[in-house]
From TrEMBL:
PANTHER family assigned to the protein according to its UniProt record, in alphabetical order: ARYLACETAMIDE DEACETYLASE, CARBOXYLESTERASE 12-RELATED
Gene3D superfamilies reported in the protein's UniProt record: alpha/beta hydrolase (3.40.50.1820)
Domain Alpha/beta hydrolase fold-3 positions: 77-295
Protein's UniProt name: Alpha/beta hydrolase fold-3 domain-containing protein
Protein family membership: Belongs to the 'GDXG' lipolytic enzyme family.
Entries under InterPro entries matching the protein: AB_hydrolase_3 (IPR013094), AB_hydrolase_fold (IPR029058), Carboxylest/Gibb_receptor (IPR050466)
Pfam family membership, one: Abhydrolase_3
Length: 319
C-alpha cells in the first residue's frame, strides 16, 4: 500500500469512500452533461440557472419547445434527485435524460434542484438548500423574477414536488415545510414519491429482520446524519413525526417496486398518512418484478414506460 495515500476512514462502496484526511471519493453519479437548448430526442430545451448566489448553487430548468413562446402556462414540477444524500447531481446523464423525457411527455416546466451533499455538508443543509430552491422559484409568482422561463410559463397554481429515493424523502419534507410556512401565491397541488428513502428501527410488513441487511440501510443513514436520534428519527421515519398531518398538499402519489428493500416503507408511509388526520388523498402504485429506481437505468422497459405515463397523468389531472 502506498504510505503517502491517506487511510480510509469510512468505506461505503460502491457509493463513496471517506479518507482520514477528510477527502471524499465518489464512485457513482460523478458524470455530468451540459444543458441543451435543442434536445433532438425529446424536443425539450434546458438551461442551468443559479438559485442560491452565496453557495453558487444551480438548478437545471426544462421547457418543451412546442409551446407558445410568449405566455403559455404549464404545470410546474420541482424535482429532487436521489443518491443517498451523498452522490449524484441534477446534472448527471441519468437525471438529465429522465427529466427531458418526463417534461416532453407531461408537457410541463421543470426545475431539477442541485443541492449540497453529505459528508462535506451536514444533512440539514440538503433540506435548507432545497427550501431555498422553492423560495427562489416562488419569487417568480408575480412574473417579475430573475428567470424568464418561470415568469412566462410556470403556473404557480399547479406546483408539484417529486423525487426518487433520497429525493422523495426531500420532497416529503419540503411539503411538510410548505404546510407550515407556505409560499405566497403558490399552490402545492401534490407530491410524487418514487421509491422513497424511509426506514425505521422495527421491521414493517415483510421487511427483512436480519441485522446484516438492516444495518446496510442504517449505516448509510448514520453516515448521512451523524447527529440523528436513530432510525426512528422523523427525518427518516415519517410515522414518528407528529407533524405528518400538516403536509401542505392535498394529493400524494407513492410509487414502490416489488423487489426494492424500501418497498414496505413506501406502503407504511401510505398507511400512516391515511390515518394521520391529513385531509388529502394518497395513492400508491407498486411495480412488480422491479428493484430500486429501475426506471432510471431501464427507462425504455415496459414497467418504466407505464410508470412514466402514470406520473404524467398525475401531473395533469384537474383536481
Amino acid at each position: 500500500m502506498d504510505p503517502t495515500h491517506p487511510k480510509v476512514a469510512k468505506d461505503l462502496s460502491p457509493l463513496i469512500k471517506i479518507y482520514e484526511d477528510g477527502s471524499v471519493e465518489r464512485f457513482m453519479g460523478i458524470d455530468i452533461v451540459p444543458p441543451s437548448l435543442d434536445d433532438p430526442k425529446t424536443d425539450v430545451q434546458s438551461k442551468d440557472v443559479v438559485y442560491f448566489q452565496e453557495a453558487n448553487l444551480s438548478s437545471r430548468l426544462y421547457l418543451p419547445k412546442s409551446i407558445d413562446p410568449s405566455n403559455q402556462k404549464l404545470p410546474l414540477l420541482i424535482y429532487f434527485h436521489g443518491g443517498g444524500f451523498c452522490i449524484e447531481t441534477a446534472f448527471s446523464p441519468t437525471y438529465h435524460n429522465y427529466l427531458n423525457t418526463l417534461v416532453a411527455e407531461a408537457k410541463i416546466i421543470a426545475v431539477s434542484v442541485d443541492y449540497r451533499r453529505v459528508p462535506e455538508h451536514p444533512l440539514s443543509t440538503v433540506y435548507d438548500d432545497s427550501w431555498s430552491a422553492l423560495q427562489w422559484v416562488a419569487s417568480h409568482v408575480n412574473g417579475n423574477g430573475p428567470e424568464e422561463w418561470l415568469n412566462l410559463h410556470a403556473d404557480f397554481g399547479k406546483l408539484f414536488l417529486a423525487g426518487d429515493s433520497a429525493g422523495a424523502n426531500i420532497s416529503h419534507h419540503m411539503a411538510l415545510r410548505f404546510g407550515e410556512e407556505k409560499l405566497p401565491g403558490v399552490i402545492l397541488k401534490g407530491i410524487v414519491l418514487i421509491h422513497p428513502y424511509f426506514w425505521g428501527k422495527e421491521p414493517v410488513g415483510d421487511e427483512p429482520k436480519d441485522s446484516e441487511t438492516r444495518s446496510k440501510v442504517e449505516t448509510l443513514w448514520l453516515f448521512a446524519s451523524p447527529t440523528t436520534s436513530g432510525s426512528d428519527d422523523p427525518l427518516i421515519n415519517p410515522a414518528f413525526d407528529p407533524r405528518l398531518a400538516r403536509l401542505g398538499c392535498l394529493r400524494v402519489l407513492v410509487i414502490v417496486a416489488e423487489k426494492d428493500l424500501l418497498q414496505n416503507r413506501g406502503w407504511y408511509y401510505y398507511e400512516n398518512l391515511k390515518k394521520s388526520g391529513w385531509k388529502g388523498v394518497v395513492e400508491i402504485m407498486e411495480t412488480k418484478e422491479e428493484d430500486h429506481v429501475f426506471h432510471l437505468f431501464k427507462p425504455s422497459c415496459e414497467n418504466a414506460v407505464a410508470m412514466l405515463k402514470l406520473i404524467c397523468s398525475y401531473l395533469n389531472e384537474e383536481k
